[in-house]
Amino acid sequence: MAIKKYRVPRTRDLGFGWKVYIKQVGPDIFKAFNCPGLPGIWMVDDKTIYIDKRISYQKKIEVYFHELIHAVADFEVRARGGI
Ligand SMILES: [Zn+2]
Fold this sequence. Notes:
Layout: E1 11-15, E2 18-25, H1 27-32, E3 40-43, E4 48-52, H2 57-79
Parallel strand pairs: 2-4
Antiparallel strand pairs: 1-2, 3-4
The structure holds zinc ion (ZN).
């Protein structure tokens, strides 16, 4: 279990002008995205990782890195000239 030592980051600079935003939100947002019950989601349209603010600190870390992988994967496609 991770010790609550760091804030959940609000932004993450991936370099080359690409930046990810991280927002901790309530369950209504996930319902609006048609994925109620998910602990987190990456939305490429607004370059934002949404994390359910009610989950544990440990789970937030896990969700943060999981969604960051999705973000990096999308930017990798863009870097190759896709999308
Ligand atoms: Zn995933």
